[in-house]
Amino acid sequence: MKITKDLYQGSLALLTDFYQLTMAYAYWKSGKTEQEAVFNLFFRKNPFQGGFTIAAGLDYVIDYCRNFKYDQNDLDYLRNMKGKSGEPMFEDAFINYLGDMKFSCDIDAVEEGTVVFPNTPLIRVKGPLVQCQLLETPLLNILNFQTLIATKAARITLAAGGEDVLEFGLRRAQGIDGALAASRAAYIGGCSSTSNVMAGKLFGIPVSGTHAHSWIMSFDTELEAFEAYAEAMPDNCVFLVDTYDTYTGLLNAIKVGKKLQERGKQMVGVRIDSGDLAYYSNMAREMLDSAGFHEAKVVASNDLDEYLVFSLKVQEASINVWGIGTKLVTAYDQPALGAVYKLAAIKDQQGNWEPKLKVSQQTIKINIPGFQNVRRYYRKGVASADMIFLEDQQNEEKGPLIIDPIDPTKRKKIDIGLESELLLKPIFRHGEKVYARPEIHEIKNRTKANLERFDKAHKRLVNPHIYPVGLEESLFNLKTNLVLKAKNQ
């Protein structure tokens, strides 16, 4: 099956904040458009008070960058913009510059489905200053949301303990694009299917679903509704049993399930969407087993999230499949990831990289300067630490010391000879894609494999153990010196 790529094929160059364009114009006026720069996109805290984050959204970024251009309608719109004086906001020569501009940046990024942590770059963009600047808003828009949803999905699937999690939040999602992006990210995070048929078509995600309460209510009796559905869809019968009374609904589902058996078909299961899910799921399991339907699934829904799923597991609820909607696709308990995009270095007139630093009264808001990469270390196959380092200063001959960027008293010595990998992978070189885009099923498998390489203490829902991420010693010293220099100006 051919899966659609380049979801956004038209111009989306104006999907940006206005200040990106005013800065671009000022760069142009200052003769700085082609000055080479490096920006890093990163976040400062794991979402949901958790211990990890799942990177997602890179495929959308690739689409965006491959189609990054200002078409004639964009240029005409900008040309007609007026300042407060009534004069054109931008000179025609600048508009023409935008029209002729060709995307030429280098982009390195962590692959989708990778477990990531605060302060480490998810994406590093290197190229002409104006192009790097213009990418800020769209990259943040894409990665903030999909990373958030993939992380939420991973937390829910971990709580479910390997049982299927169905994403069906389309009707509650924030608009059409929010729904599509959420379905994609939820699958990457670990969901087994989606109710969103368009997401199934566009991304190759398995789709699932049977019927709603309205189907039952459109018939005179619940039994008649079940029989009619079984006649129409004999291979897709998960009967929703709580429209009127769950016990009676289970009895009716069993009756129709036996009729399906007589036709050589099997009832897939029952769904419970209200009430005491632990109590009714155990009732359902007992009744189904007594009737010989040992393979029939018990599906539960009703505003579930990872905490309720975990609680129901502790209560030994007989639930095989979890339907999650609103709390997943809206990231109900944290509406934004809060990733930022900061200038890290710029080339001077002699061609040397000059590290750049934003100073703040809040330590957490001081960015990490320089041309960075991230190396992950493993001990006996288990992730043990991430090191942020300057690419031209890493020394593998001795075990590095890493220092927490927020609390310098937290330090960790990395042993020599540990297995390791670089997390930032080449995606674009000089504007040309060099990365082989994996299918979404491969990305989902990467999420699962990545999580399996982390100790369970980092994956706890509440009060997780903090995974060590630090600056290599020379980078820490560079940052400290730049902060002191800035504060003494």
From TrEMBL:
Which InterPro entries does the protein's record reference?
Aldolase_TIM, N/Namide_PRibTrfase, NAPRTase_C, NAPRTase_N, Nic_PRibTrfase-Fam, Nic_PRibTrfase_pncB, Nicotinate_pribotase-like_C
Gene3D superfamilies linked? Aldolase class I, nicotinate phosphoribosyltransferase
Which family would the database say this protein is a member of? Belongs to the NAPRTase family.
The GO terms this record gives for MF are: nicotinamide phosphoribosyltransferase activity; nicotinate phosphoribosyltransferase activity
Enzyme Commission number(s): 6.3.4.21
Q: What does this protein do?
A: Catalyzes the first step in the biosynthesis of NAD from nicotinic acid, the ATP-dependent synthesis of beta-nicotinate D-ribonucleotide from nicotinate and 5-phospho-D-ribose 1-phosphate.
> What pathway, per the record?
Cofactor biosynthesis; NAD(+) biosynthesis; nicotinate D-ribonucleotide from nicotinate: step 1/1
Q: Name one GO cellular component term.
A: cytosol
* Domain Nicotinate phosphoribosyltransferase C-terminal residues, every copy: 374-479
Q: What class of enzyme is it?
A: ligase
The answer, when asked if DNA repair is one of the entry's keywords, is no
Q: How is it modified after translation?
A: Transiently phosphorylated on a His residue during the reaction cycle. Phosphorylation strongly increases the affinity for substrates and increases the rate of nicotinate D-ribonucleotide production. Dephosphorylation regenerates the low-affinity form of the enzyme, leading to product release.
Segments forming domain Nicotinate/nicotinamide phosphoribosyltransferase: 167-347
What biological processes does GO assign it? NAD+ biosynthetic process via the salvage pathway
Organism of derivation: Anditalea andensis
Catalysed reaction equations from the record? 5-phospho-alpha-D-ribose 1-diphosphate + nicotinate + ATP + H2O = nicotinate beta-D-ribonucleotide + ADP + phosphate + diphosphate
Protein name per Swiss-Prot or TrEMBL: Nicotinate phosphoribosyltransferase
